[in-house]
Amino acid sequence: MTRTSDNSVTRARLAGLIERDDQWATLQTLLTDSLSGSGRVALLTGPVASGKTELLHAFGEASGVSFVKATCSAFEKDLPFGVVSQIFHPLDVPAEVGELLDAAARSADGPSARQLHALCIALLDLTAETPLVIGVDDVQHADPPSLHWLLYLIRRLGQAKVLLMLSETASPRAAHTPLHTELLRHPHCRDVPLAPLGAVDELFESPRHAADAMRLTGGNPLLIRSLLDDQRLCKPRDDGGLVIGPGYRRALVSCLHRCDDHVLPVARALAVTGENATRESLSRLARVDAEAVASALDVMNEAGLLGDGWFRDPAARTAVLDDLSTQDRKEMYLGAALLLHDEGAPATEVAPYLVMADHSENPWMVPVFEEAAEHALRDEQIDTALRYLELAHRACVEVHGRAAIAAKLVRVEWRVNPSAAGRRLGTVVPAMRAGQLSDRDVTSLVQPMLWNCHVDEATEALERIRRSSGSGLRAVELWLACSHPTLARRPLAEPVKARTVSLTSGPMLKAVAALANVLTYGPNDESATDAEHVLQAARPSDSASWGPESAMLALQALVYADRLDVAAHWCDRLLEEARAKNLVVARAFFSCVRAEVSLRRGDLGSAFEHAQTALDVMPAGGWGVALGMPLGILINAATKRGRHEEAAALLEQPVPEAMFQSRYGLHYLYARGHHYLATSRHYAALADFLSCGELMTSWGVDRPGLVPWRTSAAEAWLLHGANRDEAKRLINEQLARLGPDASRTRGVALRLLAATNQPHNRPQLLRDAVAVLEEYGDQYELARALADLSKAHQALREHRRAWTVARRAWHVANVCDAAELCEELLPSRGKADAEDAPAEEKPVDPIATLTDAERRVAALAAVGYTNREIASKLYITPSTIEQHLTRVYRKLNVKYRKDLPADLHSYLPSTA
C-alpha cells in the first residue's frame, strides 16, 4: 500500500489506534480517479465512534491536495446552509459567491434550484485546475438546504477533480434517506464500511488486558482509547486487572449522546430496568415506539456499547445512570415500578424500584412493600425488610393497617437493634390501647416490651391476650414462667411435658417447653432432645416473631441441664453463621451462651472473652433486662481469675431495676455474691445467694442447674465461720435435691461437705468430688477440690501426698487462668518460680492433669486407634470415647490426634 506521507500515516495510526489498511487503499484509489478528472464519492459508514472521523481527517490531510472539511451537528440542523458555508469559507471564491450563499441561506422558502446550481458551478470552477478533497463528517446531521446542495453536487461530479468523503453513523433509519437513495444511483460512489476492531493485542501490555478490553468495548475504537488512557492515568489494580476508570465511563456516555435521538432514552431505560427487560417495557419507559427500540438496540450492539442486548460491564450501566439528574433518575425508577406493577410482576421486583425512586405516596404500594418485606425476612435480609416496612408505614393511610405495620417494625427491628425497637414502642402502645392491633400483633410486642423494661405496657398486653386466649398464649405463658416469673399467671408448677409437645409445635414452644422442664424437673433426656430438635432447624435470623431467642432458650436448656459439650457444639455452629451474615443480635446471644458454657467448664479466659464479645457486639443498652447474663459472666470470670478491681468496676455499671424480677437477674446476683465472697464481705454475699434462693423458690425454678445458690450460701457460712450447722444443712439439702446422679453441683457440694466433716473423713469426700468434677470437666472447681484435698492430706501429716496433689491443683488452676488460686497453692511464687523449682517440687506435666480413664483413651488414640477400636478395647461406648478425647484435647491444649504427646505411650493398657 502506498501512502502520501509517512508522518501522516503515523498520525492516522495514532488517531484511529490501528491501521485501516483496506479502507485507506479504497480511498487512495478513489483519490487517484478523481485526480484524473472523474469525481468520486466515498461514504464512510460504521457504528458510532468506530473511527470514521479520524480516518476522514487523516486521509484528507495526507492526500496532498487541497482539503476542506465540514462537521455536521444535530444542534445546527436549523442553521440553513451551515455545512455549505463551512466548505466555501476556506476557499478563495469571488465576492458574488459569498453574496449568493448569504441570499440562499436567508431565503424563507429554502434555496431555489437556480441558487443551488450557481453555488455548485462556483465550486466546480474552482476545481478545474486545482483538485479538491471535501470531507463532511456526520452527514446524517446536515441541515436540509446543505443536504440538497450536496445531492445537487453529487449528480454533477462526473467530470470534476473532486473527492467527496461523507462520514455517517450506521443506522437502520439512515438507509431510507434521500441521500442514500441518490448515492445508490450514483455510479461513482463507493461505500467504505468501518467495522469494530478485531484485535488490540499490540495496544495493551498483556494478553489479559487486551482480552478484557475487547470484552468491555466490543472493539469500539473510542472506548479502546479511553481504556488506554485509564491505564495510564489511574492507579493500577491490586490484582493486576484492567482499570475501568472515568475515561471509559465518559467515552461510553459520549457515544450514546452522539447516536440518533432515540438511542439515549432506550439506553437509559435499559439501565434502569435491567437485563431482563422486554422491548415492550423499554418502549413504554423510553416513550418511543417498538421499532425505535429495536433500532436503538441494534445500534448499540453494533457499536460495542452492548453485548447481546445488555451492558458489557456494571461500570457501563452505572455511567448511564449517573448521566441522569437525580430527579430524572427517580422518575425513571418510578416509571419502571409502575410498569412492572401493571404487568403483574412480583413484589420483590417492584419494591426495589420504589425504594430507588424514594417514592411511597400511593396506597397500592403498601401491599407491595409488605410482601417484599416478608420475602426479605425469609432470605434473612433484615435491613432490607426494615426499609420496605418503613416505606409501607409511610404510604399507609388506613389506621389499623398502619398500626399493624408499626408493630411489625418493632418485631423486625428487635432482631437487629433491640434498643431501637424499644424506642418505637412509644408509637405502638397508643395503637394497642386504642384497639387498633390484632391479638397476634399484641402478643408479638410482649417480648420487646419486657426486654426494654416497659413492664406496665407489657402487663396491659398480657391482659388483652389472656382475655382472647389466642393460639400463642401457651408459649407466652411458659416463656413468662421461665424468664419473667412475676408476670406469669402461675409459677412453673405444671410445666409442659416433652411428650405433649407435638412434632408440629413451633420452635418457640418446643424451646420454652424444654427449658421449663429442665428448670422444674432438672436434667432429662426428653428436654435435651427437644432442645436439639429446635437447634437443628434454627436459623439465627428466624423470621418468626421471637427471632433468634428460640435458639437461645434451647441452648440455655442444654446449659442448665449440664449438657455443656452439646451446647458448645451448637453455639459454635450458630455463631459461625451469625458472624457470616453479620447478625448482631444473634451473635450477641450465642456469644453470651458460649461464655456461660466456658464459665461452667472453668475456662475463665474464654468465658471472659466471649462475654465481652457479646457486650461489644450489642452494647449494654441493647441488652435491656437480659444485661444480667453477659455482665454476670464477666463479673464471675473476673472474680475467679482474682481480678477483683475489674469485677468491682463492672458492678458499678448501671443495670435496670426490672432485671431483678427476671431470670437474667439471678445470674447477676449470683456473680455479685461471689465477688463479695472473694473480697471477704460474707454477709453481703450471703444476702445475694439467699435472695437467689427466695426468688427461685417463689418462681418454681429452684434447680441448681440454673443457679446453685445453696452451695454458695453454705460456702459463705463456712468462710464466715459463724454457722457451720446451717452450712451443713444447706449442703445436705442440695445433695438430696440432686439425687444419686453426678453433676458439677454435686462435686462442689461434696467439696464443701468435706469441710464440715472430721479431718479423717475429708480425703474420701474430696476424692469423690474430684472424680465427679473430672467427669464433668469443670477445671476451676476441680482445682479447688484438689487444693482442699491437698490441705486435707496436710492436716493428716501426709505431706508427700499433699504436695503431689497441690502440684496437680496448681497446674489445673494455671490452665484455667485462676491466678489467685495459683498463688494460694504456691504462696509467693509465680509461674516462673514453679517452673524453676527443684525436680521434686515442680508442677507435674499436663498429662498429670488427666484422669486415669482419659490417659488410657489418649494413649490408644496417640498410637492410631480409632474411637470405635478404643471403645471395643475398653468396653465403653464410642460417644464416651469422644467426650474423653474432647477433655483431653482441652487439657493438653492440642487440636488433633497427631499432636498428642509421645509420653502417652507409657500409659498404654495391657490390652493394646
From TrEMBL:
Taxonomically, which superkingdom?
Bacteria
Organism this protein belongs to: Lentzea flava
Concerning Pfam families, the annotation shows: AAA_16 (PF13191), GerE (PF00196)
Which keywords, in A-to-Z order, does the entry hold?
DNA-binding, Transcription, Transcription regulation
- Protein name according to UniProt: LuxR family transcriptional regulator
CDD domains with a match to the protein in the record: LuxR_C_like
Domain spans labelled HTH luxR-type = 843-908
Q: Which SMART domains match?
A: HTH_LUXR
- Matches recorded under InterPro entries: AAA_16, P-loop_NTPase, Sig_transdc_resp-reg_C-effctor, TPR-like_helical_dom_sf, Tscrpt_reg_LuxR_C, WH-like_DNA-bd_sf
